[in-house]
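Box 3.1 A note on notation
Throughout this textbook, protein chains are presented in two layers. The first layer is the amino acid sequence; the second is a C-alpha coordinate string describing backbone geometry. Keep the layers aligned when reading.
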Amino acid sequence: LFLFCVIDIAFQVLSGNFNVSQSTKFIISSILFMNGGAFSKYWFLPALFVAEIILFLIFKLCKSPEQRAFATIIIGIGGDTLSYFMNYHLPFHFESAVFAVLFIYCGILIKKILLGKSVKIKTTICIALGVAFMITNIAMLPWYSITDDFFSMTFRNPVLFLITAFSGSISLLLICSIQDRRNFFTRIGRHTLYIYGFHYSILGVLRKVDYEILHLQRYLPDLVLALIEVSVTLLVAYFCAEIWIYFLNLRRQKLETKT
Protein backbone atom coordinates (compact mmCIF):
# COMPACT_ATOMS: atom_id res chain seq x y z
CA LEU A 1 0.00 0.00 0.00
CA PHE A 2 2.83 2.39 0.87
CA LEU A 3 4.51 1.78 -2.50
CA PHE A 4 1.22 2.37 -4.34
CA CYS A 5 0.91 5.68 -2.48
CA VAL A 6 4.46 6.70 -3.45
CA ILE A 7 3.77 5.91 -7.11
CA ASP A 8 0.47 7.77 -6.88
CA ILE A 9 2.30 10.88 -5.65
CA ALA A 10 4.58 10.64 -8.69
CA PHE A 11 1.57 10.50 -11.03
CA GLN A 12 -0.07 13.39 -9.15
CA VAL A 13 3.05 15.47 -9.74
CA LEU A 14 2.94 14.60 -13.46
CA SER A 15 -0.73 15.55 -13.70
CA GLY A 16 -0.20 18.77 -11.73
CA ASN A 17 -2.67 17.77 -9.00
CA PHE A 18 -0.21 17.21 -6.17
CA ASN A 19 -0.92 19.17 -3.01
CA VAL A 20 1.67 18.63 -0.28
CA SER A 21 -0.44 19.83 2.63
CA GLN A 22 -3.51 17.85 1.59
CA SER A 23 -1.59 14.65 0.84
CA THR A 24 0.30 14.70 4.14
CA LYS A 25 -2.76 15.81 6.14
CA PHE A 26 -5.01 12.99 4.97
CA ILE A 27 -2.53 10.18 4.40
CA ILE A 28 -3.21 8.46 7.74
CA SER A 29 -6.99 8.85 7.69
CA SER A 30 -7.29 7.84 4.05
CA ILE A 31 -5.23 4.68 4.58
CA LEU A 32 -6.79 3.74 7.91
CA PHE A 33 -10.45 4.69 7.38
CA MET A 34 -10.58 5.10 3.57
CA ASN A 35 -13.22 7.81 3.95
CA GLY A 36 -11.50 10.61 2.06
CA GLY A 37 -8.09 12.05 1.35
CA ALA A 38 -5.47 11.57 -1.31
CA PHE A 39 -5.18 7.79 -1.07
CA SER A 40 -8.70 6.63 -0.23
CA LYS A 41 -8.93 5.18 -3.76
CA TYR A 42 -6.71 2.33 -2.52
CA TRP A 43 -9.33 1.22 0.01
CA PHE A 44 -9.43 -2.26 -1.55
CA LEU A 45 -5.80 -3.08 -0.62
CA PRO A 46 -6.19 -3.10 3.20
CA ALA A 47 -9.67 -4.63 2.74
CA LEU A 48 -8.20 -7.55 0.78
CA PHE A 49 -5.45 -7.92 3.37
CA VAL A 50 -8.04 -8.20 6.17
CA ALA A 51 -10.14 -10.62 4.07
CA GLU A 52 -7.11 -12.88 3.55
CA ILE A 53 -6.47 -12.93 7.32
CA ILE A 54 -10.10 -13.81 8.03
CA LEU A 55 -10.02 -16.62 5.47
CA PHE A 56 -6.75 -17.92 6.92
CA LEU A 57 -8.39 -18.10 10.36
CA ILE A 58 -11.41 -19.91 8.89
CA PHE A 59 -9.18 -22.57 7.33
CA LYS A 60 -7.15 -22.81 10.54
CA LEU A 61 -10.12 -23.20 12.88
CA CYS A 62 -12.52 -25.16 10.65
CA LYS A 63 -11.22 -28.54 9.60
CA SER A 64 -13.92 -29.88 7.28
CA PRO A 65 -15.02 -28.32 3.95
CA GLU A 66 -18.59 -28.10 5.26
CA GLN A 67 -17.50 -26.12 8.33
CA ARG A 68 -15.42 -23.76 6.21
CA ALA A 69 -18.25 -23.16 3.75
CA PHE A 70 -20.74 -22.53 6.58
CA ALA A 71 -18.38 -20.15 8.39
CA THR A 72 -17.63 -18.25 5.19
CA ILE A 73 -21.33 -17.79 4.36
CA ILE A 74 -22.19 -16.64 7.89
CA ILE A 75 -19.27 -14.19 8.00
CA GLY A 76 -20.05 -12.86 4.50
CA ILE A 77 -23.71 -12.30 5.34
CA GLY A 78 -22.60 -10.68 8.58
CA GLY A 79 -20.50 -8.16 6.64
CA ASP A 80 -23.42 -7.23 4.41
CA THR A 81 -25.75 -6.95 7.41
CA LEU A 82 -23.22 -4.87 9.32
CA SER A 83 -23.10 -2.28 6.54
CA TYR A 84 -26.85 -1.64 6.86
CA PHE A 85 -26.45 -0.37 10.42
CA MET A 86 -23.55 2.02 9.76
CA ASN A 87 -23.21 5.30 7.93
CA TYR A 88 -19.40 5.31 8.18
CA HIS A 89 -16.52 2.99 7.31
CA LEU A 90 -14.71 0.82 9.84
CA PRO A 91 -10.89 0.89 9.83
CA PHE A 92 -9.40 -0.90 6.81
CA HIS A 93 -12.90 -1.13 5.35
CA PHE A 94 -13.61 -4.10 7.61
CA GLU A 95 -17.25 -4.40 6.53
CA SER A 96 -16.22 -4.76 2.88
CA ALA A 97 -13.40 -7.14 3.79
CA VAL A 98 -15.79 -9.46 5.61
CA PHE A 99 -18.15 -9.53 2.63
CA ALA A 100 -15.23 -10.11 0.25
CA VAL A 101 -14.38 -13.36 2.06
CA LEU A 102 -17.27 -14.95 0.15
CA PHE A 103 -15.67 -14.14 -3.19
CA ILE A 104 -12.17 -15.26 -2.23
CA TYR A 105 -13.50 -18.57 -0.91
CA CYS A 106 -15.52 -19.02 -4.11
CA GLY A 107 -12.32 -18.51 -6.11
CA ILE A 108 -10.58 -21.23 -4.11
CA LEU A 109 -13.44 -23.65 -4.76
CA ILE A 110 -13.48 -22.87 -8.50
CA LYS A 111 -9.76 -23.55 -8.79
CA LYS A 112 -10.10 -26.79 -6.83
CA ILE A 113 -13.30 -28.17 -8.37
CA LEU A 114 -14.01 -26.66 -11.79
CA LEU A 115 -10.76 -25.70 -13.50
CA GLY A 116 -9.64 -29.32 -13.80
CA LYS A 117 -12.81 -30.44 -15.60
CA SER A 118 -13.02 -31.25 -19.30
CA VAL A 119 -13.68 -28.58 -21.92
CA LYS A 120 -17.16 -30.01 -22.52
CA ILE A 121 -18.16 -29.73 -18.86
CA LYS A 122 -16.66 -26.25 -18.58
CA THR A 123 -18.54 -25.11 -21.67
CA THR A 124 -21.85 -26.48 -20.35
CA ILE A 125 -21.38 -24.81 -16.97
CA CYS A 126 -20.31 -21.57 -18.65
CA ILE A 127 -23.45 -21.46 -20.82
CA ALA A 128 -25.71 -22.16 -17.82
CA LEU A 129 -24.03 -19.47 -15.73
CA GLY A 130 -24.15 -17.06 -18.68
CA VAL A 131 -27.92 -17.52 -18.88
CA ALA A 132 -28.20 -16.98 -15.10
CA PHE A 133 -26.09 -13.83 -15.43
CA MET A 134 -28.39 -12.36 -18.09
CA ILE A 135 -31.58 -13.30 -16.22
CA THR A 136 -30.44 -11.74 -12.94
CA ASN A 137 -29.31 -8.57 -14.72
CA ILE A 138 -32.76 -8.26 -16.29
CA ALA A 139 -34.36 -8.93 -12.91
CA MET A 140 -32.41 -6.02 -11.40
CA LEU A 141 -33.66 -3.49 -13.96
CA PRO A 142 -36.26 -2.06 -11.51
CA TRP A 143 -33.31 -0.84 -9.42
CA TYR A 144 -31.43 0.65 -12.40
CA SER A 145 -30.99 4.01 -10.63
CA ILE A 146 -28.89 2.38 -7.86
CA THR A 147 -25.28 1.38 -8.46
CA ASP A 148 -23.82 -1.80 -6.95
CA ASP A 149 -20.85 -0.48 -5.01
CA PHE A 150 -18.44 -2.52 -2.89
CA PHE A 151 -16.89 0.65 -1.49
CA SER A 152 -20.09 1.97 0.06
CA MET A 153 -21.60 -1.53 0.42
CA THR A 154 -24.77 -0.50 -1.40
CA PHE A 155 -26.42 -3.10 -3.65
CA ARG A 156 -29.62 -3.01 -5.65
CA ASN A 157 -30.58 -6.44 -4.35
CA PRO A 158 -27.95 -8.35 -2.32
CA VAL A 159 -29.20 -11.81 -3.37
CA LEU A 160 -29.40 -10.97 -7.08
CA PHE A 161 -26.07 -9.15 -6.83
CA LEU A 162 -24.37 -12.28 -5.48
CA ILE A 163 -25.91 -14.47 -8.20
CA THR A 164 -24.85 -11.98 -10.89
CA ALA A 165 -21.35 -11.53 -9.47
CA PHE A 166 -20.67 -15.24 -9.03
CA SER A 167 -22.18 -16.33 -12.35
CA GLY A 168 -20.35 -13.62 -14.29
CA SER A 169 -17.01 -14.17 -12.56
CA ILE A 170 -17.11 -17.96 -12.82
CA SER A 171 -18.10 -17.79 -16.49
CA LEU A 172 -15.17 -15.51 -17.29
CA LEU A 173 -12.74 -17.72 -15.35
CA LEU A 174 -13.97 -20.82 -17.20
CA ILE A 175 -13.66 -19.08 -20.57
CA CYS A 176 -10.07 -18.13 -19.75
CA SER A 177 -9.26 -21.67 -18.59
CA ILE A 178 -10.69 -23.17 -21.79
CA GLN A 179 -8.57 -20.90 -23.97
CA ASP A 180 -4.79 -20.83 -24.27
CA ARG A 181 -3.12 -19.77 -21.01
CA ARG A 182 -1.40 -17.00 -22.95
CA ASN A 183 -4.65 -15.36 -24.05
CA PHE A 184 -5.41 -11.72 -23.35
CA PHE A 185 -7.79 -12.22 -20.41
CA THR A 186 -5.43 -14.61 -18.63
CA ARG A 187 -2.47 -12.26 -18.96
CA ILE A 188 -4.52 -9.31 -17.73
CA GLY A 189 -6.01 -11.40 -14.91
CA ARG A 190 -2.60 -12.23 -13.46
CA HIS A 191 -1.94 -8.52 -12.91
CA THR A 192 -5.45 -7.45 -11.85
CA LEU A 193 -4.40 -6.14 -8.43
CA TYR A 194 -1.57 -4.04 -9.85
CA ILE A 195 -3.66 -2.77 -12.77
CA TYR A 196 -6.48 -1.77 -10.46
CA GLY A 197 -3.96 0.00 -8.22
CA PHE A 198 -2.25 1.89 -11.04
CA HIS A 199 -5.21 2.83 -13.23
CA TYR A 200 -6.51 5.73 -11.11
CA SER A 201 -3.19 7.55 -11.29
CA ILE A 202 -2.66 6.82 -15.00
CA LEU A 203 -6.17 8.01 -15.87
CA GLY A 204 -5.49 11.30 -14.09
CA VAL A 205 -2.39 11.91 -16.22
CA LEU A 206 -4.21 10.97 -19.44
CA ARG A 207 -7.05 13.38 -18.72
CA LYS A 208 -4.57 16.13 -17.91
CA VAL A 209 -2.83 15.58 -21.27
CA ASP A 210 -6.18 15.55 -23.07
CA TYR A 211 -7.52 18.72 -21.43
CA GLU A 212 -4.34 20.74 -21.97
CA ILE A 213 -2.89 19.34 -25.22
CA LEU A 214 -5.07 16.97 -27.26
CA HIS A 215 -8.57 18.37 -26.51
CA LEU A 216 -10.22 15.14 -27.68
CA GLN A 217 -13.24 15.82 -25.48
CA ARG A 218 -14.22 18.60 -27.90
CA TYR A 219 -14.43 16.33 -30.94
CA LEU A 220 -15.28 12.81 -29.76
CA PRO A 221 -18.52 11.45 -28.26
CA ASP A 222 -18.35 10.55 -24.57
CA LEU A 223 -18.63 6.82 -25.29
CA VAL A 224 -15.72 6.85 -27.78
CA LEU A 225 -13.63 8.96 -25.41
CA ALA A 226 -14.38 6.56 -22.55
CA LEU A 227 -13.35 3.55 -24.66
CA ILE A 228 -10.08 5.25 -25.60
CA GLU A 229 -9.39 6.14 -21.95
CA VAL A 230 -10.11 2.61 -20.78
CA SER A 231 -7.97 1.02 -23.51
CA VAL A 232 -4.95 3.27 -23.03
CA THR A 233 -5.20 3.13 -19.24
CA LEU A 234 -5.40 -0.66 -19.30
CA LEU A 235 -2.37 -0.98 -21.59
CA VAL A 236 -0.22 1.47 -19.61
CA ALA A 237 -1.27 -0.11 -16.30
CA TYR A 238 -0.46 -3.55 -17.68
CA PHE A 239 3.06 -2.52 -18.68
CA CYS A 240 3.54 -0.76 -15.32
CA ALA A 241 2.51 -4.02 -13.64
CA GLU A 242 4.98 -5.99 -15.79
CA ILE A 243 7.81 -3.64 -14.81
CA TRP A 244 6.73 -3.71 -11.15
CA ILE A 245 6.68 -7.52 -11.05
CA TYR A 246 10.02 -7.71 -12.88
CA PHE A 247 11.76 -5.65 -10.18
CA LEU A 248 9.96 -7.55 -7.41
CA ASN A 249 11.27 -10.81 -8.86
CA LEU A 250 14.80 -9.37 -9.06
CA ARG A 251 14.54 -8.34 -5.42
CA ARG A 252 13.25 -11.77 -4.45
CA GLN A 253 16.09 -13.50 -6.29
CA LYS A 254 18.68 -11.35 -4.51
CA LEU A 255 17.16 -12.19 -1.12
CA GLU A 256 17.12 -15.89 -1.97
CA THR A 257 20.76 -15.73 -3.07
CA LYS A 258 21.79 -14.13 0.22
CA THR A 259 19.99 -16.78 2.27
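The two ends are 26 Å apart (CA to CA). The longest helix spans residues 222-258.
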